[in-house]
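May I ask for a single protein's sequence together with how it folds?
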Amino acid sequence: MNNNFKNIQNNNNKNNLDQEKYAYLKAEAEAPYKGLRKFIYFGIGASGAIGAFIFFIQIIAGKNVTNNIPNLLIQLGVITLMILLFRWENRQNT
C-alpha cells in the first residue's frame, strides 16, 4: 500500500508544472515575445551606432559635411529611441 501511495504522488508531480516553468509561462503570457523585442531593440541600436560612427568619421574627414550632419543626427535619434524602448521594456517588469 505504501508503494501505491508513492506512485500516485509521483504521477501528480508529473502532471503539475514545477514553479520555475509556471513562472516562465506566466511571464510569457503577460508580455509575449519580450526577449525578441529586446533583441530587436539591441540590433537596431547597434546598427544606429555603426551608422553614427561612420557619419561622424566622414564629418571629421570633411567629406560631404552638409549631407552627413543630418544623417548623423538621425542615427543618434535611432540610438536614443532604442535605448528608451529598451528601458521601457525593462521598467514594465516591475
Remarks:
- The chain has a mean pLDDT of 84.
